[in-house]
């Protein structure tokens, strides 16, 4: 195959490039110099370009274009390249770059999810209105870093001090089970697929739950929500119709509000399931998420569809391969 699948050497790079190689593509990783040696361990990566910093990818636009590179974005793109990377990167890019504006703005996210008929936590419009437990979240892809809890305006003012200049939302804290729904929407066959389900392991909030109650009163530190890993989940089969329905509604609304192609490819609805088995969507990620790394050889849900190992990374590559076969590649690149 004449095309090369490329991505930044971080986040879900291994899964993406393994899947691309399984589908017959050449593969390329752009790696920071201190990590290049690590990525050389994997023989499914054909070429590694070491860079001083990830933003140096912009200097490679001309070189990579000659190699017929297709870029697969993941969570590290916004984190390391900046929110305007979609304008600076001049390479064929899988997925609609315009969804980044909606993903990066938490108020727009909520508008989108509500238009799709999804339940969402209540937003608190001003710190003076805090009269319950809330979670404060910052804009952009940060893997939960910096999120904090507050129960009053006074507590909020103290904690927000070290985040001056950061954009944030104040969201009702939902009590329930975190359930992260990994989807893939194909522009080629117009179908939604459930690729897997996970929950995150966060430091230090998950560690706090292991402290015996008799010691808790002597502990004086705040929970944090930085993601360090993921657990696989299988949910009750009776919940699956709503899971598929939510994904389909989110895609349908995206086609109306996000020009010109809406949302397609991998995405994740990050939800809390309450005691009455209702899904509340707390965030949407409009790209491959790190939780899909659990399923490099497939998940229970991809087994139902494919009967062969199918990661999200491989599903992306198969979509690209099918688009090439049908002469429809430009429909899925931006």
How would the blueprint of this fold be written?
Layout lengths: L3 E5 L4 H10 L3 E7 L3 H4 L7 E5 L9 H6 L2 E3 L3 H7 L3 H4 L10 H6 L1 H10 L7 E2 L9 E5 L9 E3 L2 H8 L7 E5 L4 E9 L6 E13 H4 L4 H4 L8 E8 L7 H18 L7 E9 L5 E7 L14 H7 L5 H14 L9
Parallel strand pairs: 1-2, 1-4, 2-3
Antiparallel strand pairs: 5-8, 6-7, 6-8, 9-10, 9-12, 10-11, 12-13
Helix pairs in contact: 1-13
Keywords: ATP-binding, Ligase, Magnesium, Manganese, Metal-binding, Nucleotide-binding, Purine biosynthesis
Protein name: ATP-grasp domain-containing protein
GO molecular function: ATP binding; ligase activity, forming carbon-nitrogen bonds; magnesium ion binding
Description:
- The protein is α+β, with helices and mostly antiparallel strands and 334 residues long.
- The protein has 3 domains: 4-93, Rossmann fold, CATH 3.40.50; 102-119 and 175-325, ATP-grasp fold, B domain (D-amino Acid Aminotransferase, Chain A, domain 1, 2-Layer Sandwich), CATH 3.30.470.20; 123-172, Dna Ligase, domain 1 (2-Layer Sandwich), CATH 3.30.1490.
- The protein has 13 helices and 13 strands.
- The strands form 3 sheets. A 5-stranded antiparallel beta sheet has the order 11-10-9-12-13. It has a 4-stranded parallel beta sheet with strand order 3-2-1-4.
- Strand 9 (177-185) and strand 10 (192-204) form a beta hairpin.
- Helix 1 crosses helix 13.
- The longest helix is centred in the last third of the chain and has 18 residues, at 240-257.
- The mean pLDDT is 93.
- InterPro entries: ATP-grasp, ATP_grasp_subdomain_1, IMP_biosynth_PurP, IMP_biosynth_PurP_C, IMP_biosynth_PurP_N, PreATP-grasp_dom_sf.
